[in-house]
Amino acid sequence: MTVALHDFIVPAERAATGPPEARGTARDGVRMLVADRGTLTHARFRELPRFLRAGDLVVVNNSATLAAAVDARYRDRPAVLHFATALDDGGWVVELRAPEGVPFTAADPEPGTHIHLPGATAVLRAPWLPPARRLWIADIDTGVPRLLARHGRPITYSYVAQRWSLDYYRTVFGREPGSAEMPSAGRPFTDRLVTDLVAAGIQLAPITLHTGVSSPETGEPPSPERFRVPDNTARLVNSTHAAGGRVIAVGTTVTRALESATDATGHTRPASGWTELVLGAGHPTRAVDGLITGWHEPGASHLRLLEAVAGADTVRAAYRAALDTGYLWHEFGDTALLFHSD
């Protein structure tokens, strides 16, 4: 199958409609396609240690997933409100969706209008990323953490066949609540696999990046996201490179955070705040030598980030192989390990 980097079709049957545990597969038993210096290898995720080497550093995202979807009514129509990002002024970035997990088309959101929630109200202030109108800044008249704890559930989309509890959307690294959607590249890790990596001389270090919501409109840039690269992680990235080791990012979130903290010389420093960094062929990675990732939709900005890590040819070959051999897409699907092409 011929695959252009940003123009391909994912058959409907390739959507993972539920967690692998429901398919009789362990978290670390999902498939993993490894692309390394022109060679493609099919494996299972639990085999990750054999593709790394002593002295490598695996950087993970310790952001924990929120129960960020709440039933709502907008202009007397049923809806679901997704809480995407907490803002510094107390507002929230939100997305209005239909109960079926598809875009809300019953009425156009407008500034000043009210979205009714269980025991609370959200008032739309303005679009978050104009001219796009998918995401809005909203003011909520109650404490959002309490609202989500009482009435929230994980964000899901139409390809997920049923609702799953928040436990299925947690990773073993999640310690800092804040992600609207699961940092899904870390989902296949288990405690045993982490132990195997450490026993093989491979270090792990955390960053925090709180994810927003996916499904952007065509042409919509990646949303600004809150992140933190701690001092110890920055030191480990630099010392790993100095010793000839490789830095492997677990997910596009980790890649974005590390590269936001890395200067033009490749030196990584502690950093925190908001990142608007967009990586691609014109902005290759300086800190990240390899990337563990899920499979992304055609046109997704994440594909350009993959290209920034591994190069367009490697990404194209990996996607061609994944489509040809039955890999599964989305947060409960299969994975890839892509190394820098040099």
TrEMBL record:
Keywords: Cytoplasm, Glycosyltransferase, Isomerase, Queuosine biosynthesis, S-adenosyl-L-methionine, Transferase
A Pfam family that the UniProt record links to this protein: Queuosine_synth
Signal peptide: none
GO process terms (BP): tRNA queuosine(34) biosynthetic process
GO molecular function: S-adenosylmethionine:tRNA ribosyltransferase-isomerase activity
The protein's enzyme class: transferase
InterPro entries xrefs: QueA (IPR003699), QueA_dom1 (IPR042118), QueA_dom2 (IPR042119), QueA_sf (IPR036100)
EC nos: 2.4.99.17
PANTHER family: S-ADENOSYLMETHIONINE:TRNA RIBOSYLTRANSFERASE-ISOMERASE
Official protein name in the record: S-adenosylmethionine:tRNA ribosyltransferase-isomerase
